[in-house]
């Protein structure tokens, strides 16, 4: 029952997002003055996003039984006018034949772009941009309240190798490409609203074209970095009972103590799996956008969700709808990843003394390592048969 309720809630939310006209009911419209045709009131109702019974149009597709004689204007059409034909196309009641075959060429009218555009220009930019500003403000406040996490007793003066060169390369390949993708993605998403008023259309056009080219090509470096870091670190990021002790102690962020940890603590494991899972998701939706109409994802995905939760999400999607869902999902996942990575960047730079060295030179202070990854240090010292190397 709970699954069905959850599924129903998800269906209602999706319906309101992609079909906002369902949100309000409107009284029946009197169309006697137009002979049953669309009225100005119909148009105004749609603009006000009120629910409108479209059957007066969707069912008015012409009647062959009322066909005019062949000698009259519409006789050769069998009672179907041009308007009737386009209404049939609009409501997907005929199967058109096109000279240039392709996955999307047979879709002659697809009005889902309006809902997609409103969602993209409205909630996606507002909530996504607000969340980015919010996390930055929170981290600034946290820094001034908590201060930088220092090495207790000061640095030891000797170092131990934390990450090898290949590990640092994989990390920076992933991190650098993600930052570039984030910047170019934000320029593409928000530039029209925020940059055109500042730099003008011509300058933004050049910037947008360059951003799009960079975004599409740097994506391959991101996916390569994702695979590299997964292969190198997945064995160290399997959750275990030690992680719960780290979580209960708050990771030592809010206290002076330092809970025990191996090579990766629970917080780093959360970041790892967040990047891996969301990275795969954003890569799949990105590939779908890079190769339009070639990689439909959401029809089948909605089918799986329906079978599990008993929902009624649409499974028969036009190629354009697949692209619209992919674009919205790509943006949402990217924003969530940016929030996680901003927090990760904070703790790895200004938030903690000695943390950046791990991915800088690969050598970290031995005392820092003992305080934050004591069990890992013990393992390394056991392997080497001695303490840290200077």
From TrEMBL:
The keyword NAD does not apply. The chain crosses the membrane at residues 124-145, 172-198, 218-235, 270-291, 328-347. This is Formate dehydrogenase subunit gamma. One of its GO terms (molecular function) is metal ion binding. Keywords: Cell membrane, Electron transport, Heme, Iron, Membrane, Metal-binding, Signal, Transmembrane, Transmembrane helix, Transport. InterPro entries: Cyt_b561_bac/Ni-Hgenase (IPR011577), Di-haem_cyt_TM (IPR016174), FDH_cytochrome_b556_subunit (IPR051817), Formate_DH_gsu (IPR006471). Gene3D superfamilies: Transmembrane di-heme cytochromes, Chain C (1.20.950.20). Belongs to the formate dehydrogenase gamma subunit family. GO terms for biological process: anaerobic respiration; formate oxidation; respiratory electron transport chain. Its cofactor is heme. It is a multi-pass membrane protein. Its main location: membrane. SUPFAM superfamilies: Transmembrane di-heme cytochromes. It comes from Marinobacter vinifirmus. Residues 1-23 form the signal peptide. It is found in: Cell membrane. GO terms for cellular component: formate dehydrogenase complex; plasma membrane. It holds the Pfam family Ni_hydr_CYTB. Residues 162-361 form the Cytochrome b561 bacterial/Ni-hydrogenase domain.
């Amino acid at each position: 029952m709970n699954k069905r309720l959850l599924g129903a809630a998800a269906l209602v939310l999706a319906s309101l997002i992609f079909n906002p006209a369902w949100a309000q009911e409107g009284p029946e419209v009197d169309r006697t003055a137009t002979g049953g045709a669309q009225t100005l009131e119909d148009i105004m109702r749609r603009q006000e996003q009120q629910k409108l019974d479209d059957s007066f149009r969707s069912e008015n597709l012409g009647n062959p039984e009322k066909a005019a004689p062949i000698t009259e204007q519409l006789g050769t059409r069998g009672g179907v006018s041009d308007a009737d034909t386009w209404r049939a196309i609009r409501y997907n009641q005929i199967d058109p034949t096109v000279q240039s075959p392709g996955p999307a060429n047979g879709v002659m009218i697809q009005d889902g772009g309006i809902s997609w555009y409103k969602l993209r220009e409205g909630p996606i930019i507002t909530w996504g941009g607000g969340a980015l500003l919010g996390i930055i403000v929170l981290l600034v406040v946290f820094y001034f309240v908590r201060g930088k996490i220092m090495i207790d007793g000061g640095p030891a003066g000797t170092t131990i190798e934390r990450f090898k060169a290949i590990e640092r390369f994989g990390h920076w390949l992933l991190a650098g490409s993600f930052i570039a993708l984030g910047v170019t993605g934000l320029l593409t998403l928000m530039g029209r609203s925020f940059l055109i008023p500042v730099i003008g259309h011509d300058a933004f056009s050049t910037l947008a074209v360059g951003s799009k080219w960079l975004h599409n090509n740097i994506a391959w470096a991101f996916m390569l970095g994702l695979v590299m870091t997964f292969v190198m670190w997945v064995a160290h990021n399997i959750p275990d009972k030690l992680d719960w002790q780290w979580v209960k102690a708050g990771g030592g962020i809010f206290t002076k103590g330092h809970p025990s940890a191996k090579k990766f603590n629970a917080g780093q494991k959360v970041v790892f799996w967040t990047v891996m899972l969301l990275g795969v998701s954003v890569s799949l939706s990105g590939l779908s956008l890079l190769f339009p109409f070639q990689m439909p994802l959401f029809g089948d995905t909605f089918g799986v969700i329906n079978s599990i939760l008993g929902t009624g999400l649409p499974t028969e999607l036009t190629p354009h709808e697949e692209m619209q869902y992919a674009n919205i999902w790509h943006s949402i996942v990217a924003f969530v990843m940016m929030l996680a990575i901003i927090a990760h960047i904070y703790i790895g730079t200004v938030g903690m003394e000695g943390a950046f060295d791990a991915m800088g030179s690969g050598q970290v202070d031995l005392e820092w390592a003992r305080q934050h990854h004591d069990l890992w240090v013990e393992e390394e010292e056991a392997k080497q048969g001695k303490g840290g190397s200077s």
